[in-house]
Amino acid sequence: MKLTQKMQDALNHQLNCEMMSSYLYLGMSNRLIELNFVGASQWMRMQAEEELVHAMKLYSYLQDRGGRVKLANLEATQEAGHWNDMVSVFKAALAHEELISTNFYEMVDLALAERDHATNNLLQWFVAEQVEEEATLVTLIQKLELVGTSGPGLFLLDQELATRVSIVTIQTAP
Ligand code: OFO
Question: Rounded to the nearest whole angstrom, what is the distance from the C-alpha of residue 92 to the centroid of ligand 1?
Answer without folding.
Answer: 13
